[in-house]
Design brief:
Tachylectin-2, Chain A, 33 strands, about 475 residues, mainly beta, 5-stranded antiparallel β-sheet, Alpha-Beta Plaits
């Protein structure tokens, strides 16, 4: 089996990693999508559709922004996003600060007729109602008779990328960047010809690692607008990569946004033009066996390991990811020797060199020679113990089953075992010393009402994600 990174550009591999399905939510113009906010999403809806709302909001059936959490594949209770100050602007065209108390959003000024970017603060009024209060004027860099739309903030809130047709554009709509210096935003700069084309680049989104996602109809793709990503390299962005036909289609695929809270879910819109515009929201989630690996995110699958920004972390301070508890170091002084390579794990893109060492009692260094001469060890070498690997089938059980000791699968009784992993209790059945019978039981479970069952491996009684165990 390949590593996650080896298959990130392979559609078949992406199918094993990502679930993509339509989501039952009507997209209301002028929005073309939704935006994540805290533990839920913000979306536009017609108030007459929101039957749970107060009659004060239903009377005229106006377009308004609502907030709701996502519960499995449906929305939870809808609440008005801004009770005392109406917010009816495109929800995918907004971005939030880290504390969610500031938003930058897109609206059309009364006098201009061209979209501009505004800032709003979350506050309360004299009656303790909370809502968003917008600045009267757009951002300072929104000048002249140009469109400025769909802002997205970097993780440190020092960079803002947006779409514009302002002077300096290569094509129709280009992506520009403005940087915050001393609480002021700089004059926008074009992101360049590697990203922008003679077509249109739109709907930018920066994830928590500053990787850029956007839609373009000028880069090679599968349909009208395709979704692309550019990995952030610590200074700027690498060349765009198509998210493959796992995400893109022959239609317009736009407004791709990732939940920054955990990075494990995303939403985007597919727009069809057949007589009238039809928009369908899609949801992307990590498959359960992938989501259990707490280091993996949707952006990680497409862009690989994040690169630390040079202003915060240098390459010399980065440590390799450990998938198993570190072994205790001997309490003796060590002498550094030649570099050796660490075996690749499921989350290693490349092998990370580490320094091999021997104790002073095991080596002598001649003052006139650079090489290390190894003498006979004075400490007995322990006999290497063979790892014990056990395979089990992990199930997603319901509340009534969690207190049971046994479970019936296809007429056969299995002991239901519980273990704690990544902050939650997990449940397994079966115990095999080889992979093949475990896969057969997994197939039986999936055919017997447990479609999300999968094989897990335990090495020396510790859950292991080493893909070599699944070959």
């Amino acid at each position: 089996m390949c590593s996650f990174w080896a298959i990130k550009d392979d559609t078949a591999g992406l199918i094993r990693l990502l679930e993509v399905d339509s989501f039952n939510l009507r997209i209301i113009p002028p929005s073309s999508g939704v935006q994540y906010y805290k533990n839920g999403i913000v979306f536009l809806s017609m108030s007459k559709y929101e039957k749970k709302m107060s009659p004060d909001f239903i009377s005229f059936g106006t377009v308004e922004a609502y907030f709701a959490t996502i519960e499995d594949s449906v929305l939870g209770k809808h609440i008005v996003f801004s009770p005392f100050s109406s917010f009816s602007y495109p929800c995918e065209a907004m971005t939030f600060s880290r504390d969610y108390n500031t938003t930058y959003f897109t609206k059309i000024p009364k006098k201009d007729k061209k979209e501009k970017i505004y800032m709003a603060k979350f506050t309360s009024n004299s009656t303790s109602q909370t809502g968003w209060v917008s600045e009267k004027n757009p951002m300072d860099f929104c000048t002249d008779n140009y469109t400025y739309s769909h802002p997205t903030l970097s993780a440190d809130e020092k960079m803002m990328i947006f779409a514009s047709d302002k002077e300096g554009s290569i094509g129709g709509m280009d992506l520009f960047i403005s940087r915050k210096v001393d609480d002021k935003w700089s004059a926008p700069e074009n992101l360049g010809q590697f990203i922008n084309t003679t077509g249109n680049e739109f709907f930018p989104f920066l994830d928590s690692e500053n990787n850029l996602f956007f839609s373009s109809d000028g880069l090679p793709g599968y349909g009208g607008y395709d979704v692309f990503t550019c990995k952030f390299n610590g200074v700027d962005w690498d060349k765009p990569k198509n998210l493959s036909d796992r995400i893109n289609s022959k239609y317009d695929d736009i407004a791709f946004t990732i939940n920054k809270m955990d990075g494990k879910t995303a939403l985007y819109t597919r727009r069809q033009k057949s007589g009238k515009v039809v928009m369908q929201l899609f949801r992307v989630i990590l498959r359960q066996e992938v989501a259990d690996h707490n280091l993996l995110t949707i952006s990680y699958i497409f862009n690989g390991k994040p690169v630390a920004t040079t202003s915060l972390i240098t390459a010399n301070t980065m440590k390799p990811i450990e998938t198993e508890p570190a072994k205790a170091k001997p309490e003796t002084e060590v002498i550094k020797k030649e570099e050796v390579k660490v075996p690749e794990t499921s989350v290693n893109l490349k092998k990370i060199p580490e320094k091999k060492s021997v104790t002073k009692s095991e080596a002598e260094v001649k003052p006139t020679e650079a090489k290390v001469v190894i003498t006979k060890p004075t400490i007995p070498i322990p006999v290497e113990q063979k790892d014990v690997v056990i395979y089990k089938i992990q199930l997603l059980v319901n509340t009534s089953q969690k207190n049971k000791k046994e479970i019936i699968i296809n007429g056969k009784s299995y002991n239901l075992n519980e273990y704690f992993y990544l902050g939650a209790n997990r449940y397994t059945i079966g115990e095999f010393s080889t992979l093949k019978p475990a896969i057969e039981l997994q197939r039986t479970c999936r055919q017997s009402g447990y479609p999300q069952s999968f094989v897990v491996a335990f090495k020396n009684n510790i859950r292991s994600l080493d893909l070599k165990l699944f070959k």
